[in-house]
Amino acid sequence: MLAASAYFSHHEFSERYKSPIHLLAKKPSTTAAKVAPLLAGSGALGELQSKQILAAYGIPVTRDFLCTSAAEAAKIAKKEFGGAAVVMKIASAEILHKSDLDLVRVGVTGPAEVRKTFDDLMAVAARRAKGAQVDGVLVCEMAEPGIECVVGVSRDELFGPVVMFGLGGVFVEVFGDVSFRVPPFDRDEAVRMIEQTVGSALLHGQRGSKPVKISALVDVLMKVQKLAMDNAATISELDINPLVVRPNGVVALDALIVREPITAE
């Protein structure tokens, strides 16, 4: 009797939460068609390409420029950022955890330091990521500080795309303080998704700090689920980490998209 009850409960649950992979529109959305060339093939995309896809869906990202020489990096830093401090990081789809390998430098200023940092990053990559294809170095804007969050998507065999939210740092790495939702969901559900995490209290302002713009964070969750649904048959993993949330908005500092197309059986 218990076995039969469990079977029917599972059947009812499965019927209610059909995988959206089987409900894909016959014609892709305009945005999906626009990013299709970037999603062709398989494997991980580099940070720059991953951010281009996020930007196509209206998700704010930092201004980044791929440079293939120290001279080009110095020129870009001066032309695009007026000599202000920049972030520099190695550009490679085969190096997924750049910070762990000392391949990210923050607060780089001046032409001489930019050129030196370019050469240093390329040398470190050659030593610590032997064999990895390196496209160059990204010269990126220094974003305003804020609360670091993580937004992700993973492909579940039963449910299809599943969206994840959590606060960055120890909240996700140590405590596993994250929440999940299966698309489609509305803005009210996105708010509940945020509030479900223990760390969400920090978003409302603590000890004199200003509350962040929750509506901007909700916008990102809604756009991420659209991205995930549009490309459910292609994207197996998406990771925005960190997504910095501030009183005046949000911006993605880093992103990773992994392509694993579903083939018809």
UniProtKB/TrEMBL annotation:
InterPro entries listed in its UniProt record: Acyl-CoA_Synth/Transferase, ATP_grasp_subdomain_1
Keywords: ATP-binding, Ligase, Nucleotide-binding
Transmembrane regions: none
Pfam families named in the record: ATP-grasp_5
Gene3D superfamilies on file: ATP-grasp fold, A domain, ATP-grasp fold, B domain
MF (Gene Ontology): ATP binding; ligase activity
Name of this protein: Unannotated protein
Gene source species: freshwater metagenome
Phylogenetic classification of the source organism: unclassified sequences, metagenomes, ecological metagenomes
